[in-house]
């Protein structure tokens, strides 16, 4: 049930119970629209220049390797939805089949947050929604003070975060070629540069969650294909993750909780395989396990007292998107079609929706854009 304070255009959607079992709206199999790459200088190129091929990391490799040589993307630069929009403009120009109007255009990470909210106990967030030309664009609301806090938090995780990237460097061969130095260990394909990314723009052509179209952009770590071969399609894509070796019940529970985010992130984009590299406290890779993304919920259900279930996640995702769609999309969803080609679009209203852990989601209007 949505509670409404219509005078302020303020709406509240409570979280569903975690035990909810009513059958959830279905999520269509994602279809790939296009791909693009962030090159080492962070510029955008259409195509697969930054794609990487999977090559299993050697057990025993040291995930601290190359820490002092890493190159990091400037997190202070707010890229908004730039890459996704550049990719979609190219799709529109070339007349390829793009996203469906009347739905959402955003990063996969935003939808992952909506889905995982029913099980998120600590981290709130805020997103901005703007309706433009028949679709709703969503991005993270990221004011400077929040970003400063996040940077502080991230610096305390810097080493752990680096090991995730180092696992990628040990597990992949870049399409652009390896960049090894004389002292690099076996399996290392080149120093970590977090500016480099390979993005898929996937779309659920007919419907995404229930009848709400989604057009999502998201980074993919690698493909399982012969080195040098062209992009082999969504079903060969693979997500890489790291985890600490599981040695007790508490760590087991933490890992299973983390699986919700891993599952949602990959499943939304249609990435069928997740490989987890397990490392010890010193950063040495001890083992690897591969998970079939679509089987993860079944695997979770087989555990005693599973820490999450996809049903409330899908219900909540659908409920939030329905609420946003209902209030944010104007009744004339495509003003450009009734205006002369050179006429400016009317100013769009900016809406925000924020998540309060354990409670729910608030949607409110903040007025016309700029
Ligand atoms: P792990 O998830 O294995 O720790 P992704 O897995 O999404 O491809 O991201 C690659 C790595 O980047 C992650 O590996 C993690 O180390 C780091 N990373 C991703 N998102 C992050 C964030 N919000 N803050 C800090 N590090 C992050
Ligand atoms: Mg990645
Ligand atoms: Mg990864």
Automatic annotation (TrEMBL):
The keyword Nuclease applies. It is found in: Nucleus. It catalyses: a 5'-end (N(7)-methyl 5'-triphosphoguanosine)-ribonucleoside-ribonucleotide in mRNA + H2O = a (N(7)-methyl 5'-triphosphoguanosine)-nucleoside + a 5'-end phospho-ribonucleoside in mRNA + H(+); a 5'-end triphospho-ribonucleoside in mRNA + H2O = a 5'-end phospho-ribonucleoside in mRNA + diphosphate + H(+); a 5'-end NAD(+)-phospho-ribonucleoside in mRNA + H2O = a 5'-end phospho-ribonucleoside in mRNA + NAD(+) + H(+). Its EC number is 3.6.1.-. Pfam families: RAI1. It is an enzyme of class 3 (hydrolase). GO terms for molecular function: metal ion binding; mRNA 5'-diphosphatase activity; nuclease activity; nucleotide binding; RNA binding. It comes from the Eukaryota. InterPro entries: RAI1, RAI1-like_fam. GO terms for cellular component: cytosol; nucleus. Keywords: Hydrolase, Metal-binding, Nuclease, Nucleotide-binding, Nucleus, RNA-binding. GO terms for biological process: NAD-cap decapping; nuclear-transcribed mRNA catabolic process. Its cofactor is a divalent metal cation. PANTHER family: DECAPPING AND EXORIBONUCLEASE PROTEIN, DOM-3 RELATED. Decapping enzyme for NAD-capped RNAs: specifically hydrolyzes the nicotinamide adenine dinucleotide (NAD) cap from a subset of RNAs by removing the entire NAD moiety from the 5'-end of an NAD-capped RNA. Belongs to the DXO/Dom3Z family. This is Decapping nuclease.
């Amino acid at each position: 049930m949505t509670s409404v304070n219509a005078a302020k255009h303020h709406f509240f959607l409570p979280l569903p119970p975690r035990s909810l079992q009513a059958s959830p709206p279905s999520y269509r199999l994602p279809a790939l629209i296009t791909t693009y790459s962030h090159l080492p200088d962070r510029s955008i190129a259409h195509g697969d220049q930054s794609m990487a091929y999977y090559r299993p990391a050697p057990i025993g490799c040291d995930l601290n390797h190359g820490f002092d040589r890493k190159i990091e993307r400037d997190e202070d630069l707010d890229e908004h939805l730039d890459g996704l929009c550049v990719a979609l403009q190219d799709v529109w120009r070339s007349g390829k089949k793009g996203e469906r109007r009347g739905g959402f255009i955003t990063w996969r990470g935003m939808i992952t947050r909506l889905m995982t909210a029913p099980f998120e106990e600590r981290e709130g967030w805020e997103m901005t929604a703007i309706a433009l030309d028949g679709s709703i664009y969503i991005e993270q609301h990221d004011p400077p003070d929040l970003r400063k806090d996040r940077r502080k938090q991230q610096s305390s995780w810097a080493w752990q975060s680096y090991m995730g990237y180092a696992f990628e460097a040990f597990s992949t061969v870049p399409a652009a070629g390896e960049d090894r130095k004389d002292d690099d260990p076996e399996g290392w394909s080149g120093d970590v540069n977090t500016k480099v990314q390979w993005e898929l723009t996937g779309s659920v052509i007919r419907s995404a969650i229930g009848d709400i179209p989604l057009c999502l952009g998201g980074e993919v770590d690698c493909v399982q294909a012969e080195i040098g071969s062209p992009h082999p399609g969504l079903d060969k894509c693979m997500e890489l993750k790291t985890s600490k070796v599981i040695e007790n019940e508490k760590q087991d529970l933490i890992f299973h909780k983390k699986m919700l985010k891993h599952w949602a992130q990959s499943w939304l984009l249609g990435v069928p395989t997740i490989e987890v590299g397990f490392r010890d406290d010193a950063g040495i890779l001890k083992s690897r396990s591969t998970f079939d993304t679509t089987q993860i919920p079944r695997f979770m259900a087989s555990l005693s007292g599973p820490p999450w279930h996809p049903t409330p996640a899908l219900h909540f995702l659908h409920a939030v998107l329905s609420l946003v769609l209902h209030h944010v999309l104007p009744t004339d969803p495509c003003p450009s079609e009734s205006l002369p080609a050179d006429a400016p679009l009317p100013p769009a209203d900016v809406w925000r929706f924020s998540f309060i852990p354990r409670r729910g989601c608030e949607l409110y209007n903040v007025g016309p854009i700029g």
